[in-house]
Amino acid sequence: GQRDIQLEGLEEEVVEHRLSSEEQVCSCCGDNLHEMSTEERRELKIVPAKAKVLKHIKYVYSCRKCDKENTTTPVKTAPIPNPVISGSLASPSSVAYIMTQKYLEAQPLYRQEQNLSRLGIKLSRQTMANWMIKLQMIGLLLCTKDCMNC
């Protein structure tokens, strides 16, 4: 019914509760019990936001043969995505989260700072404000805010 519609499309995690083999013994005759049926109960589990450090490792390659035989050694570097804001910890997901909280949920940066701190994330409101200013300067913030208001 209505409850199924509310949970439709959500990832499902199954937790099975079984008796241990020692507990699967009949209290009357002592014979082994068999699984007769199951009963289900569904709950809504909300996992709060969590943060991870995404460490980019860029590999650099060179030719050992050319290094030994030639005066120049060709060097190749693996491509890596450009950062959202150069020299910062900002990632596309962290910026999107902060912007969504600020512009869609109307949550000021000081409250975001408090909420993130409770999750073990030390990110000051000044840093978040600087990210918003830098995104504004490169034109990403206006575009995103316009799209969010649709």
UniProtKB/TrEMBL annotation:
UniProt xrefs under InterPro entries: Transposase-related, Transposase_IS66_central, Znf_dom_IS66
Segments forming domain Transposase IS66 central? 88-136
The UniProt record lists the Transposase IS66 zinc-finger binding domain at 23-67
Q: Which domain of life is it from?
A: Bacteria
Pfam families registered for this protein in UniProt: DDE_Tnp_IS66, zf-IS66
What this protein is called in its record is IS66 family transposase
At the highest ranks, the source species' classification is: Bacteria, Bacillati, Bacillota, Clostridia, Natranaerobiales
